[in-house]
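FW: tagging you since you asked about this chain on Friday. Here's the raw sequence from the shared folder, copied in full. Didn't touch anything.
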Amino acid sequence: MADKLIFELGTEEIPAGMVAGLRNNLADDAEELLEDNRIDYEEIDVYSTPRRLVLEAEGVAEKQSDTEEVIRGPSEEIAFDDEGNPTKAAEGFARGQNVDLEEVIIRDGYLFVERLIEGRPAREVLAEMLPELVKNLSQPQTMRWGSGQFEFVRPIRWILALYGERVINFELAGLESDRITRGHRFLGVDSKRIESADDYFSRLADEYVIVDQNRRRAMILEQIKEIENEEDIEVFITDDLIQEVTNLIEFPAAFLGSFNPDFLKVPDEVLKTSMIEHQRYFPVKENDSLAASFISVRNGDEKHLENVIKGNEMVIRARLADAAFFYEEDRSVELEDFNQELKNIIYQEELGSIYDKVKRLEKLSRGFGQNLGLSEDKIQALKRAARLAKFDLATDMVDEFAKLQGVMGRIYAEDAGEEKPVAEAIEEHYLPDQSGGELPGSDVGAVLSIADKMDDIVSNFFAGNEPSGSHDPFALRRKGVGIIRILISRDWNITVSELIAETSELIGAEDEVRVNIRDFIRDRLESHLGERDIRYDIIKAVLEAGFDDITDCWKRCQALMNLRSENLGRFTDLIYGLQRCQNLAAQGEPAAEINPDLLGEEEEMNLHREYSDVKEDVLSSFSAGSYEKGLEKLVDLKDPIDNFLDNVVVMVDDEETRKNRLALLAEVSSLSDQVMDIGEIALDEDRK
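HL: got it, structure written out here
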């Protein structure tokens, strides 16, 4: 009979940022191990609190499913002599498998033994599987504790393992599994006996532990909503913050606190960052403006909550006082003085200081802006923004709140009277700062962002810091995709070659480094196009035809995807015909040019005529970037191509005729070269 499995690892507090990844890995590994061990189950869920990781599996079979083992022995030729008598090889095989020779099966020229292996009891298998699950769990970091050698993300303090009402007995990290768990560190008991897996969640809830993180999250949001309604306020909630708070507590109690309104003179971004990053508070808004209050969530009940509120208000008062001090101190310093301090901040050992990077940004951004045809006003704004792009890295505020880089640059630049495009670009040049994140909103910010990211990429490749596997400490992959997204979103046609050449020239990167960077950008482009649902064969075909102009690549991909989705039949027929032309043309040596006088068959004359009629329109459309229009014209060649290939023999004995026909096919197939490598497009097997 099937039953429920509960496996709980009790630990010291696990950092909130690690919990979600551990849950996902535990779920994936548990599913794989159960399947590998032939233990059927209905559903798996994984839960967590700061002090425990919990695996719940419903409908776990009482025993492994039976399986059939098939063992191959010697070939029939070796197993029997010429008279059909078993040899020592056959007898030895049977004896080794502990069966009579009559039980051996002959199939496909070999001897086989087939035997049924009955499944073992699930508890017995789980006692071996669960320790293996923990030992092999992928973790961001591990530690040892005590005198033992076992490693885990945090010290393990207890293990509960129940299959229905029965304990799954095993030893792990010097601990014996049991039916004993622990309640809330302050509100619950230190030892709680669980009689059945079905009772686990309710018995822990009695001890102020809400094991299900989704339920804790819902409770927090409910409590916040109640406070919003009671106080007529709006609370600033982000997914990251609610997830982190959920992972920090076992039993939530939300409360409203306040601080001195004088602190509201400090920019909103600073106040919100201080509350969120340092205290995990939820900022509060009133009438669309930041209010002098906050919501926090206690890991406990509502008893003595007034004391908790006072304590939190004292803490935030000190935090905001520091922030206000940093703000006023920074505002008393000239922006250029901060710039000079950048000379003392190392960027890369091989490349000097942040100030040296700023000097490169001034040159790069101006060059890129001119290549893109920006107006002189924007070029001047770009020059100034590049000069001030990194000054805030020397401020006290960014030293305290690193996430405010760029933001404080904008705020301080505005306070100092810098023009709006300059101040905006200082903040925008860090965008996008996460996968799929917001892009720069202005041309000046976009060019400065490209320059900054290209400098980072080329600098790190030059210094030997290329991304490898999952190792990308400087987020170069994200920055590469950021450049690609900016270029496509703004329909800019600056080439990869220009970006690499101008940046490499300033840094001193040699040809080998430049080639590696080019390959890196191609890989990022291929990945990005795939994420935007472009078919892999179309991506491959487009990139093989050239990827120097990233925006042009995007347009070619879109045109091919649109043609394919609007009329799959026409698309397939066109590709099939062009591929046949290309394949045939490659089988011989075509003439240098087509000689119309050698066209004797009606079908080849018709193909040449139709080709000549559309060639100029197709190529001019492609050159203008009107790829859909050009491809539609190319589709007109579908019937003439088919008629030619179905009725005209290309590889005739007459050399001039053969070469002329090959030249015609080569010319026709090359019409698409500007868009794609036609041979990379995959066709359905039945069409081939």
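FW: The two ends are 53 Å apart (CA to CA).
HL: agreed, and The chain has a mean pLDDT of 93.
FW: great, closing this out.
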